[in-house]
Write a structure and sequence with these properties.
This protein is an alpha+beta fold. It has 2 domains: about 80 residues, Winged helix-like DNA-binding domain superfamily/Winged helix DNA-binding domain (Arc Repressor Mutant, subunit A), CATH 1.10.10; about 160 residues, Chorismate lyase (3-Layer(aba) Sandwich). It contains 8 helices and 10 strands. Strand 8 and strand 9 form a beta hairpin. This is GntR family transcriptional regulator.
Length: about 250
């Protein structure tokens, strides 16, 4: 049954809650798919004979559940499912996506030797004068924008080897490059995961509204010898990425 053929009950749950349930079911059943526009508030008002406030509350419920996004001038758009990342494993983005049957891709915003932040220098055990290799990349899975990554690699691991070019960083895994060219295997480390609100700059990079919910992962990746090799800060769109804890 099409969503607009459903009828509301005058008893039980509030009407906004019933409308949210009808629209949610229509997404689950594929009537609305990722990228499709949802009915407008005005259309919901007409179909269900409810107020604009009720229609807005129903759509806001779906936003909170991560099923749709609402953008000024665009409307309500259906989102795809979110990617799960186990919290007990450290993987590069390429490996993580490939294990899920997704195609990873990158857009390199910048790459080169750079003065590290104080946090990066402390995490990697560097002197303030050291310049690690920094790369800034947008992360995509099946061409859907997932996140923004800033990575610092300690300079002494490169030896006489030149760091990866922007073309190499755009085409594949940084961890694979470290393994194949420097013999460094990332096998552990620590990650800190926190919720945050997107700044104006991050919102523009991730194509979301300012103050949208994001997940920020701060990572220290270590080699099998226990050497801190990489310090990274990855900001994920919360509507497309989440972490899974297996107990």
């Amino acid at each position: 049954m099409s969503w607009n053929a459903a009828r509301l009950s005058d008893e039980g749950a509030p009407k906004w809650f019933q409308i949210a349930g009808i629209l949610r079911q229509s997404i689950v059943e594929g009537e609305f798919q990722a990228g499709d526009a949802m009915p407008t508030e005005a259309h919901l008002n007409e179909v269900f004979e409810v107020s604009r406030t009720t229609a807005r509350a129903a759509l806001n419920k779906l936003v909170q559940e991560g099923l749709i996004t609402r953008r000024s001038g665009v409307g309500s758009i259906v989102l795809g499912g979110r990617v799960d990342q186990p919290v007990n494993q450290i993987r590069g983005f390429t490996e993580d996506m490939q294990l899920r049957g997704l195609k990873p891709s990158f857009e390199v915003l910048s790459a080169g030797w750079s003065q590290s932040s104080g946090e990066a220098a402390q995490a990697l055990g560097l002197a303030s004068s050291d310049k690690p290799f920094r790369s800034d990349r947008l992360l995509r899975a099946n061409d859907r924008l997932m996140g923004y990554s800033v990575s610092w690699i300690r300079p002494d691991v490169f030896g006489a080897m030149a760091p990866p070019t922007e073309a190499l960083l755009a085409g594949g895994s940084l961890y694979a490059w470290l393994r194949e060219n420097l013999g460094i295997e990332i096998s552990g480390g620590v990650e800190f995961i926190e919720a945050n609100l997107a700044s104006q700059e991050i919102a523009q990079l991730l194509d979301v509204e300012p103050a949208s919910a994001v997940l920020v992962v701060t990572r220290i990746a270590k080699s099998t010898a226990g050497l801190p090799v990489e310090f990274a800060v990855v900001t994920y769109r919360a509507d497309r990425y989440r972490f899974r804890v297996e107990l």
